[in-house]
Structures
1.
Amino acid sequence: MADQLSIDVIKDFQQKLSSLLGVSGHEEEVRNFIIGEIEKNSLADKSWIDPLGNVLAIKEGTIGEDRILLDAHIDEIGFMVSHITEKGFLRFVPIGTWDIRILLGQSVILKSADGKIFNGIIGSLPPHITTVKERNKVVTIDNMYIDIGMSSEEEVIENQINIGTTGTLYSPFVEFPNGMVRGKAFDDRTGCNVLLHTLLLLKEQEHSDTVLINFAAQEEAGGQGAITGAYSLKPTMAIAIENTTAADVPGVSKEKIPVYIGKGPAITVADLSIITNPKINARLIKNAEQEDIPWQYKKPKYSRTDAGRIQITRKGVPSTVVSVPCRYIHSPTSLLKLEDIYNTVRLIEAFIRNPSKI
Ligand code: CO
């Protein structure tokens, strides 16, 4: 199956998906792209958008005894305008978890109600007018503002930017050596990329279990999309596909590194929202080994995932998480290796096909 996969196509999808703007609760661009791809390429037997804004899809199995849910979230972390000053500056609140220290001086993109993109800068006082003591103090988000080059509250509102407008940090997609790429929103457009590629592989084959897909809204706002999607799809087991912290960088001791870039998909044993299901993990590992797919454990216990929501749907759903390792998530720029996405798609496809018959 792996010979149908192309790193170039994976890269192309990664660029397209990550360039879309979709802060939690405002994911229309991502949703439209994904449902477009599913319909254009007939990737599912059934696909639809649910009332909360998830893209759901079903690919029937030949026996259909098990119903395997694959979930990846379509939203990204960002900001929401909370106040417009008389002079046209924007105060804002975070949507999702940011490291506040890295925000000052960053470029921002905002989307107006009529869909136009505006550029902004997260402003701070210049070093020329601050004292050394002031510069050494951590600036809180309440003291930051976004400058979009407008000069009055009226001008901002006329341009359809208002309380509730969302945006995120600007970061172009760039290729690095060794098949690495950087860009915005890799958490979790990478998971979306994995799901679209898994569906492309499944298109050419019959599989006994039914495959259920949730491109889930609002993970970064609390996992609301995962809850409603899993309720509709009635899975018997689930895997959340994520993009997770590779802290394999200077200054981090080995025991504190959750996952490594280049070592393949990471299987979670526990995060802050779930103790994952050992039987699903065993099926992943057995099939990975049978097909020579590199894999690694994600060490406990870091971050929360949609799997924590899915597992408590209806009467309970055995669940786990498989992640593509990525450096600098929840910062302006993420960095990952395309080969890790490639091997994650291989692992998920092998899990569904289940040649190890576990
Ligand atoms: Co995520």
2.
Amino acid sequence: MAESLFSELVELCRLLESTNSRLKKVQLIANYLKRLSPVDGKTASYLLIGRLSEEKDGSPLNVGWKIIMKALKSGKNLSLLSAPLTINDVWSSLKLISQIQGQGSMKKKLAVLESLFSRCSKDELEWLLRILSGEMRHGVNVGLLLDAVAAISGIDDHAVRRFDMIIGDVGELVRLALSKQLSGRIGIRIFNPVRPMLAEMCYDVQDALDKHGGLSSFEPKYDGVRLQIHKQGSEIRLFTRRLSDVTKNMPDIIDVLKRSINAFSAILDSEVIAVDTSGKALPFQDTLRRVTRERDVEEVIKRVPLKIWIFDALMVDGEVIIDRPYLERRKLLESIVDKEVLTPFIMSDNKTVVEDFFNKVIAQGHEGIMAKDLRSPYTPGRRGTTWLKIKSAENLDLVIIAAEWGHGRRKRWLSNYHLAVRDEETGRYLMVGKTFKGLTDKEFEAMTNRLLSLKTSAQEWGVIVKPFVVVEVSYNEIQKSPHYESGYALRFARIVRIRDDKSPDEVSTYQRLKILYEKQFEKKGKFTEYATSNYGGL
Ligand code: AMP
């Protein structure tokens, strides 16, 4: 099969942009992908959704808009002289750019970009720039690609989504579909992480009991980092919720797990938190820093110990148990892990008993509790009402889409951040407010550098950036607002923390925002109370 041309992808993008019909978009994508080799299909899928790297956690290329503009200025056009650009050419160049580091790296990146741009026709250049900025504006998201996978493979939507949960990478799914390898044999395998099951927010204990049929199980909700544990014999590996392998950063946790899991093979779900020397939970940022730390691990283990809490089992001794009810999985878990690492658990139908449990957990410094339906299967990657989180106040996870230069002391920093939710239906990011509150000076400085590397255009007031950095934001009220495209604005928004563990497509949705807006009217008194007690009357 001949290598696929970039111009064909561009042609597809133009057609996608000109149709609003979801069905038509799916057909166009499926027909296009069917003509490609499996490897090109994988690459084309990434490019179609503006993903620039194969690494799931892959950071962007770290080339600011300035370098891109500079490369454009060179204005060389060799498109008629050189061989037509293939998808693979574009992908290899992006890969090369992401790997360039150290002294003179900007110059080298500029050279690669210049050479790539010089080979583009006008149309190709336009779409390449859209890919680089992540603003494709042709209405294609992962969901649409999954529908295309269903169309290519003849497998129904539901099964494709299940494969997606297990494989966790839409490009890889396209590759498997094109090579006719997508079949019932694909299952959960040791050392191949699956996407973790997610929880939905609920209002309070009564709400959770109602949603779970009057009886439910409750556990502390730890404010840490999700870890999927894979064990086979004496080998143990740990994966984050974005499926990165972080095993080597946590030899202390591996030691604990080696002595506390009593099964030959297992896939378990857990949360890890950093604790102080007296065992009290430390803030989330400390956990994140510790878990992602790759250098001098031995030294930091002594200073910032970790504590792991296991709460579910997906596979035990070769048998996949995700379809069994939670209560059964929990019993099995209790029989194979030591109490030291087992998440505390109560089962109750009594609101007062659960509220008591909630208060105790909060007093221990944790975030809230999780309510889990005892009858529910483990659904990888899915957010549903079978797992509900009950927190004392709900924050939103928002993505930064632009930033303004500060004034006075903050003059050199990008310090007022434009925040957005994600519209689940269109995949677009909609602005809901701005804030310059919540970061330390050091964080402002680091954030400024980070945002500059994500810049897609410069304005007099600041920069527009590729939606990438996720922040958790508290607020005291959601108001209707004509100023923002979303139609809503957060009052007194404040960054609680930077959520490097979340990707932009995991931010709070526009749909959730609307529900929260309505909820305020039911429980207005409560909201005001939270606002004054937690945020000093902001
Ligand atoms: P959130 O990050 O706010 O969407 O909340 C869901 C996250 O809570 C999960 O992804 C886990 O990382 C974390 N978590 C903490 N404790 C538990 C628990 N007992 N069961 C499940 N998830 C938990």
